[in-house]
Write a structure and sequence with these properties.
- The structure holds 2 protein chains of 2 kinds.
- By secondary structure, chain A is of the alpha/beta class.
- Chain A is 27% helix and 25% strand.
- Chain A is globular.
- In chain B, the strands form 6 sheets. In chain B, strands 20, 21, 23, 25, 26, 27 and 29 form a 7-stranded mixed beta sheet that branches. A 6-stranded mixed beta sheet of chain B has the order 10-9-12-17-14-15, with no helix packed on it. In chain B, strands 11-19-18-13-16 form a 5-stranded mixed beta sheet, with no helix packed on it.
- Chain B is globular and about 60 Å long.
- Chain B folds into 3 domains: 122 residues, Sandwich (Immunoglobulin-like), CATH 2.60.40; 137 residues, Immunoglobulin-like; 147 residues, Sandwich (Immunoglobulin-like), CATH 2.60.40.420.
- Helices cover 3% and strands 37% of the residues of chain B.
- The chains are: A alpha/beta, B mainly beta.
């Protein structure tokens, strides 16, 4: 767990901070009370211009499901930000792209907890594929790849 | 389900015998008939889990009640229990913690053919140990337990214990939708790879928590049983000092829990003696604060205004009579080790079977966990190769090592384990358990005498973890 934090700290150095004049973006994070990666991810977002209200919940998968996240694409927490759901360890540039472009979708998700994702640490094993999903029953589409 | 005005009225359903409980103190616990044939029907039913005005929730129930009827057996007296399957799917009953013949253990495929829809199965066993046990399905476990199939099994001591009152809290945890229905999503991989399907509604004996009326000065034996799929509980009794007298049905040296918290993982039971030393008219919360940031009041001890029953606590001894457990011979013990692996934040131990550091996606067969590199998934089936074999009568010194980032209540079928040490420190109070909770990175040493032949299960009792690979089998020849 300490390693996770160290790696998270490292990733903070790598991530580009927002310009000082940018407004703080408020977000609510629902997470499993026993998962530490999400806290590292929240920390990462906070160093990139977000203010995260962390809410531990025991029924995360139910909350994610209610929020429209496809069961097979769930990440390890659900972030509610500016009318969107951002599920899992989505890199901050992609979150900001979402908030800037404001597409007509419910949210985006990076499934699981892939190695090398913000908050996780470890070596990245391949590209991160972030999916966009809606609540109208249509299949998820690729929103961004990093 | 039964409608009861208070969830704390112990539901003593005697299927053949009725016994009354004296109201005055000190009383003896109720007695059940020594022998007799019980029948239990498994079928869909309905329950009001959020109170008498709440919605009806479709559940699966034993004899139409949630939880199922409390079975009271006598130590050393034969019992016959016919289970009728009124579900549309296979079921079995596992008599959790009872040391019985392998063929009565209730694991489909491994110890018996599953009970098909419309069929019966006769379970016959003679419980050697007095204590607090429970029963539940071992087929489609995650769904069947999650839909309500669980009941308490009390084996009475030959000589009753001197208390004023005996209470049973069978604790269940439900994941309900906003309209009170059992939420879909059983087997969700994120649940499976994290802490399991923890719910959002806790019931005590099938009803939402309410005040428990108590009398100043009375001594209560409280039997706690956690029948949740995945919820771990840590109970604090404000202003009170519960004394643990048995764990998983097996008596131990009476002791107060560390930090005053009773940690009760799924499938665990703890018997406590509570001397009600509060003032008449006072109120004291019972709080479950296991999960950080998610503490809630389970119930409140509400003292009636009457004069105390007695001036000083009873001085009767609270130690329970011992059970006839075979003593391990540690000098000649055979050592075995099982290592728990996988899950989220698992560090790549499951890389070969669908894990990954943290698991991008579930692997083959929905495996998210493994024991010694092997994922046995599901509920049990024929042809499960034993992880190790013990000669009958040998002492096994079993090390369980949790390499994962998650908590696991590890349950061994057919035996009680003498818990020797946790992370190198001796475990005091002579504790025997059939369900041992391992914190992340914990190492537990325990011992038992392999006196009962058969293929026995050893698995995590977080149902999602079991289904997703945290299960193994060992053989006693």
């Amino acid at each position: 767990m300490k390693l996770t934090y160290r790696l998270a700290a490292l990733s903070l150095l790598i991530a580009t901070p927002l310009p000082a004049f940018a407004a703080t973006i408020n977000a609510v994070m629902y997470k499993n009370p026993q998962c530490s990666c999400c806290e590292s991810y929240a920390n990462y977002l906070e160093h990139n211009g977000f203010k995260i209200d962390i809410k531990p919940v025991n029924n995360l998968s139910q909350i994610s499901s209610d929020a429209g996240v496809p069961a097979d694409l769930e990440g390890c927490h659900a972030l509610m930000v500016d009318g969107y759901v951002v599920d899992g360890l989505v890199p901050v540039e992609i979150v900001k792209k979402l908030l800037t472009e404001r597409p007509a979708i419910t949210g985006i998700t990076l499934a699981g907890m892939p190695t090398g994702a913000p908050g996780m640490g470890g070596e990245k094993q391949g590209p991160f594929v972030v999916y966009a999903f809606t609540k109208d029953g249509k299949a998820p589409t690729v929103y961004a790849t990093e | 389900m039964n409608s009861v005005s208070s969830p704390f009225i112990t539901r003593r359903k005697f299927l053949l015998a009725a016994a009354s409980i004296a109201a005055s103190a000190p009383i003896r616990p109720a007695l059940a008939l020594a022998t007799g044939e019980h029948r239990i029907r498994v079928a869909p039913g309905q329950a009001r889990l959020t109170g008498p005005d709440g919605p009806r929730t479709p559940v699966w129930a034993y004899d139409g009640t949630v939880p199922g009827p409390t079975l009271r057996l006598r130590q050393g007296q034969p019992a016959r229990i016919v289970v009728e399957n009124g579900l549309d799917e296979d079921t079995t009953v596992h008599w959790h913690g009872i040391r019985l013949a392998n063929a009565m253990d209730g694991v489909p495929g491994l110890t018996q053919p599953p009970i098909r829809p419309g069929e019966n199965f006769l379970y016959e066993f003679t419980p050697p140990d007095a204590g607090t046990f429970w029963y539940h399905p071992h087929a489609d476990s995650l769904v069947q337990l999650g839909r309500g199939l669980a009941g308490a099994l009390i084996v009475e001591e030959a000589e009753p214990v001197a208390v004023d009152r005996e209470l049973l809290w069978l604790l269940q945890d439900w994941r309900l939708t906003k309209d009170g229905q059992i939420a879909a999503g059983f087997g969700n991989m994120m649940d499976a790879a994290m802490s399991g399907r923890v719910g959002n509604v806790v019931t005590v004996n099938g009803a939402p928590p309410a005040d428990l009326t108590v009398k100043a000065g009375e001594r209560v034996r409280l039997r706690l049983a956690n029948a949740s799929l995945a919820r771990i509980m840590a109970l604090r009794f404000e202003g009170h000092r519960p004394v643990i007298v048995a764990i998983d049905g097996q008596p131990c040296d009476p002791h107060e829990p560390e930090g005053g918290r009773l940690v009760l993982a799924p499938a665990m039971r703890i018997d406590v003696v509570l001397d009600m030393q509060g003032d008449p008219g006072s109120r004291h919360a019972v709080i479950d604060d296991y999960y950080d940031g998610l503490a809630y009041t389970l119930t409140t001890l509400a003292y009636d205004a009457g004069a105390p029953l007695r001036d000083h606590p009873l001085d009767a001894p609270i130690r329970l009579p011992g059970n006839p457990l075979p003593g391990p011979d540690l000098a000649e013990a055979e050592r075995q080790e099982i290592v728990l692996q996988g899950g989220m934040m698992g560090g790549g131990k499951l890389a070969g079977i669908g894990g990954m550091m943290g698991m991008a996606m579930p692997g083959m067969n929905g495996a998210a966990w493994a024991i010694n590199g092997m994922s046995m998934t599901g509920d049990g089936h024929a042809g499960m190769a034993p992880q190790f074999t013990l000669s009958r009568g040998a002492t096994c010194r079993l090390t369980m090592r949790n390499e994962t980032a998650w908590w696991h209540p590890m349950h061994v079928h057919g035996f009680s384990l003498s818990v020797l040490s946790r992370n190198g420190s001796p475990v005091p109070h002579r504790q025997w358990q059939d369900t041992v909770l391992l914190a992340p990175k914990d190492t537990i040493e325990c011992a038992f005498v392999a006196d009962n032949p058969g293929d026995w299960m050893l698995h995590c009792h977080v149902a999602d973890h079991q289904m997703a690979g945290l299960m193994t089998v060992f053989r006693v020849t």
